[in-house]
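Structure ticket #2291
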Amino acid sequence: MSDKRHIHLIGICGTAMASLAGMLKQRGFRVTGSDAAAYPPMSDFLASLNIPLAQPFAAANLNPRPDVVVVGNAISRGNVELEHILDQRIPFCSLPQILHDEFLRGKEVLVVAGTHGKTTTTSMLAWIFHSAGVQPSFLIGGIAENFGSSFQLGEGKHFILEGDEYDTAFFDKGPKFLHYFPDAIILTSVEFDHADIYKDLDAVETAFKRLVNLVPGRGRIVALDTGESIGRCLAKAFCPVEHYGSSQGATWQVKNLRLDPARTSWTVLRNGTPWSDFEFALAGEYNVLNATAAAALASGCGISKEQIAAALKTFKSVKRRLEVRAQVNGITIIDDFAHHPTAIAGTLKALHARYPGARLWAILEPRSNTLRRNVFQNELARSLAVADEVVVANVFRSESIPESERMDVAALVADVQRQGRHARIVPDADAIVQTVAPEMRPGDVVAILSNGGFGGIYEKLPQRLKSIAGGASGNQSLKASAKA
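Resolution: structure written out below.
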């Protein structure tokens, strides 16, 4: 790539693609990109890096002709830019390919993989290494708040990487993480997900088995201590495996967990012996497990438990993970990326613990390729029933999912209602804002659950609540004047 100066990224607003764009620019390449639509936080992130973003897709976006085009995995045949590069024989590659060739060679690669918790765990691991002064490089599928970035190119020997099991590109349907050749991995969970590319759980397990098979004998795997799927994936590992979790047999066992409204604390036992006490500001038992996994891998890389504890105590979070977007008239609005029933249940339980006694709203947009389908309809109803008030929007781009496979939103809502919760369908963001905002009251906590922009609801709902509060204040002033 040393002789190729202009790189264009199709689908640049994906979290990994935007991060790659920043890394390439830092390396001295001229970088441009395009996407169908842009929304925060990645659109803001690209603007901060002064990387030109063209939208929508158009062949003109490839003028002047780039030296190489990186094709995002969301891009398929028929895309006007992709068709142009094929017709014009412009060289192209995938994100994992250029990442490996340009950035991973010569590094000690630490990959965080699993169905849930990858982004947060990768961010924790990167912050631990950074705080310890070892100058890691990292690439995360989200904006790590401690860094204000999703990537860093450090001088140290470690490259910390979120390993995605989703497919690589239109011409390479294998998972991204098989391109990274890790020296060590964290495996947080293995469940069925990405129903658009995996037929069943067995297919998902096969992908993770292949990842495990890439770790050298001198390497290490830190894996959650529960789940038959994880056990099957690890059965033929050639390297040492250490488990973390709450079970007695875990190498790294979580004990004395306290989920308080303002902080979370716990103790980790190593091989049954007290090892270290930890605390941080994050909510949720799942975040404790994420942090314990990061601590275990960091310890194996020579970082002291004191350094790990200090880093975790100052760890903030990741954008769109239990992120407080607004507080209006005593109502707290939370943005969370959760788009799988297991993650949704974990998010809602964490919010109940963080805001005890609050009325908890769950406002869901079925947007991910898994949630748009009916594969998890029963599990999703149980997860949503953790909330007190449930609002479900129509399935995003439902016409692209065959009716026989599509989530039945009416059946989902009826199932939640049978579990004793108030649930309803409200078709889109605008209707939701107009319908539910007047019903909200001080002390409520609102969890907005989507892996996309959700029609701008994150901005529209606070604005509507402010207008309601302003109107109420004005009415009270008018009443007071009338009495006077």
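Closing remark: The longest helix spans residues 457-483.
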